[in-house]
Amino acid sequence: MEFCEIRITREPLEAVRLNFAQTEGAVVDFFGVVRAIEEDRMIDGIEYEAFEAMAERQLVLIGEEARERFRLASVIIHHRIGFVRAGEASLFVRVTARHRRAAFEGSSQIVERLKQAVPIWKHPVYANAQMA
Fold it and tell me: Is the whole-model pTM more than 0.85?
């Protein structure tokens, strides 16, 4: 496997098959799941759109930045676009590292940087009823 696997897809997200390595002691998986409430209102889901080529490039840069800072062995980032229902995953991130602290911190940084820098936009699709 290459160091960094990036995928922007319209397909439902699943965890990538695990292949443990003898050199990494930590694997951290993160799923970002669409909540049923956005801005105190019920939603059916979120419509994600992206400038795909730029988003993929930014995700690679974010993965490389995290690798250097936290000495990660591998990074996988899959982001879903199109309509994602509440309760479904819109983001999957997996990092591997020699030690757990680096893996947890690297995963967290990837998610934070993704939200700041990647041209993926979300548009809530509100349900008919509002919360009381």
Answer: yes
